[in-house]
Amino acid sequence: MSRLRNRELLLSLKASTIEACFSVPMLNLTMPSFPFVIAFAVAALGWGPGAVGLMAALPHLCNLVQPALSVWLRGRFSLRQIIQVTFILNALPWAFVSALPMASTTTRNISFAVILTVGTLANCVCAVAWSSAIAELVPSRIAGTFFGRRNLIFGFWTLLVVITASQLAQRYGSTLSVYGWIFVAGSAARMIGFFFFTRMKFPKSVLHRAPTPPNWGELAAPFRDPNYLILALFIGLWGFFLNMGQPFYPVFLLKILHRPVGDVGWLTALAGVGALLTLRGWGRLSDRFGVKPVLYVCSLFWALISLASWSAAGTRWHLHIALCYLLVGGATAGFQLCQFNLMLKLAPANKAPHVAVFVALTSFLTALGPLAGGLMLRFLPEDLGTVMGQGLHHFHLVFAVSMIGCLLSIHVLDRVKEESAHGPEAVWRTMRGMRTFNPLLSVTTAAQMLVTPRALVGITRDSVRSLKRHAKRIGDVGEEIVEGGRDVIRSRLPGDRD
Prior knowledge:
Elements: H1 3-30, H2 35-43, H3 49-74, H4 79-91, H5 105-135, H6 143-171, H7 176-198, H8 204-207, H9 226-245, H10 249-256, H11 261-289, H12 291-311, H13 320-346, H14 351-379, E1 383-387, E2 390-393, H15 394-413, H16 424-432, H17 443-451, H18 453-471, H19 477-484
Antiparallel strand pairs: 1-2
């Protein structure tokens, strides 16, 4: 590979990380299943659990449409062109939220539903095309390390943006106007990210339309891969049970615990802190032991912590929810990283149809989750009695069913086959000795956090020190990527010729 090609690859990886620092925070503010936009729908628009359930299901319903749409687009455009068009369509509609205060209630609700649908569908198509394109750029052998560090860097900025946006919304009364300007700023940030995406260099397979139009029959290929289907089944079942309860966490906080909107932002930020503290560790573990065992550990940890925390949450005991968000944030970061890497790792060379079908299958099951949760909340009696001095609500039952279902779905992951993967026990043993996962995995420290304020101050001090270490890496993204993947610049990009 020539020196120019080496530099192009390095700059592309750098641009990809900078792009994410602008784009991902905006996605965390506008994804229909994420806390901020749900808080907007509840606090500013007055939407109830049924509407929130439909809104949370929207990304997954859009993913059901995207395989056919993606095949049609790839027959006419290159992957890069598809990403560019859908990137813009995802960003621009959110600027129109600022005009909602001038509309009537009916027009306002319909307009916001249209904005949600257009932006979400565009993002679903863009995500599949981007996944296929980035897989051509990053060698699988360092994918865990690279994406772990990339996620760490943009996660830092996502944390700051979510905190700032939530506090602004709370300070100015959660009005339509303040939310409108927040979404305008997010739309502008997404377009800045688009600029950095245009600076990336890709192999010819990404830049040019395929000489032979994609065959609709290629969508059947993933169905002949049992191992890939089992992975899709696990992710789909996990998404179904998780989204049965998770989209309603903000509703529970706002309606039952009567917490302000700003608290939703702080809790979301705590989840971001957990992700920042653990992302590098998850990447290293998946490169060392395989992706599947790390995914197993993250799933088990996530489900157990959430089950215990939300089942005990109420007006009397709710401070432990902060610890839950911190711990689950770390597990979520590892789960998302491993899910993405394993999806690409098990797919064949022609990844686009496999990725499209994978997303569609998992989204079909995931979309049913918030719908089922919304129906349960609608028909179950709100008051189920009193337990240990605090009220038991229908939310508690939905949350418990959600997490128990997640625990049961982990058994499906056991049947997924990954070449050269170790057992989960090896991951557990290594995690206990890694500084990255301290104090997140220390049972003693966690217990102290629940009992003594002094321990809470100590854990915060440790977390701040860790964040300072991570923040140093943000100063020079290019240097960070060089350190993490020197062998990348010696590798041959797919499609290169001598």
